[in-house]
């Protein structure tokens, strides 16, 4: 068994696609119309056949409250691995990404947390 797909609830799929593709660098994989929403997935450019990240519209009644509670408590919705956290921090900051935690050592890994502009906190992690 392996992970095939993971989701991030987003408030606007078009805005999320622009952020996750053009700012973070993920590659679009699937974009299918599904009524007023889309089945929208991306993958890592380093692993185009790997785990897909679905940008899921927050249509479930509990999703807004769930996302708000996580954000209020400073809990990231997802964690992405990076090779050079300082370099990513500089690149993303220059692109206007708002960080809630600058790169810091946490339990033998470096982490940073930023706002994805779609209602989520995202953590990036560099393993030693």
UniProtKB/TrEMBL annotation:
InterPro entries: Glyas_Bleomycin-R_OHBP_Dase (IPR029068), Glyas_Fos-R_dOase_dom (IPR004360), VOC_core (IPR037523). This is Glyoxalase. It holds the Pfam family Glyoxalase. It comes from the Bacteria. Signal peptide: none annotated. PANTHER family: GLYOXALASE/BLEOMYCIN RESISTANCE PROTEIN/DIOXYGENASE, GLYOXALASE_BLEOMYCIN RESISTANCE PROTEIN_DIOXYGENASE. Gene3D superfamilies: 2,3-Dihydroxybiphenyl 1,2-Dioxygenase, domain 1 (3.10.180.10). Residues 2-127 form the VOC domain.
